[in-house]
Amino acid sequence: MEHTYPVEPDLVMPGPRALPAERRAVNWPHVWAYIGLSFGLAWLVDLALYLNGGLQNPAATLMLQFQMLMPAFSALLLGVFFFKDSLVYYRTNRNASRWFIYYYFLMTMLYLGGLVAALVQPSLIGTVSGSLSIVSVVGLALLLVLRWRGGPQSFAGAGMAFGGIRYWLLFGLGMALFYGLHTLLNYVFKMGTLADVTQLFPRGAAPAMPQSALLATTFLSMVIIGPFLGLIITFGEEYGWRGFLQTELVRLGRIRGVGLLGIIWGIWHWPIIWMGYNYPGQPVLGSLLMTAYTVALSYFLAYAVFKSKGVWTAVYLHALNNQALAFFMSALVMPVSMVMSFGIGLPALALWAVVILLILRDPIWKETD
What we know:
single chain; mainly alpha
């Protein structure tokens, strides 16, 4: 017997317009257009980074943030102007969400302009970084105002439902505890060494306070506050992967579609892995590990979206994932090897396998979209 779940107005599952059953197949032309555009734009950014010194370039962090904007930019560009059956098509989406979409386009262009300025004149990197942080915070404020003024359906009707704070808390707590376990196992099995939290700050910039207080302050900043400040950046990935592509691919079946999405997502990361990101000195093995990791993370994020009926749940969890990994693996216990330690290495995949096998037992994976 198929389970059904009550759906609140704000928890509408992101997806295309309702279609007759015989047309509920994957729209492969749309999928390939999205993959081509999102990969093409992101890999152009990676090429520009490679040609300008790779990860050693002072503007590398900004360029990686800009790359994260490309999946949503691609999905929104195609959906707003080209896919007439899209929930965000400009002629039919008259909800308040359209103003957030237009701001997102503007923010992407501002990021591009800022990056060009930083590459041409490296002395401007600090100014550009600060300015773009303000642009992102303004985007978050606009999102909240529009959601408040327009009501739940203003974003749910555009495939951008928020998902409910209880799901953010439940899955967020689970993710924080999960990475805390990784950190503990790294320490117990001597796969990592105790870190010095002051190393996270520029030389001489660490606040003058006891180590325990500094650690608590860093935790508050990175794991509690950081994910919310990073929401607009991680929206850049999650609306593209979970909001658009997952909605199409789960028509193959939820388990198969999410697995395929995870592989695509992993391949999208390959150029920066080849440059030494995450797995320094391991371009081939690192690419395979990253793909396995994104497959595992895709099942977790998809599960959160299915349960909450909101893509913004995945946006928050993606931001929390990045911040929690950075805190636990940099401020607490530094892995000895990114390949052979818990976190994002081979041992971590064993823990992920257990988690995925458990969540796949939920009947929700048998539902159809």
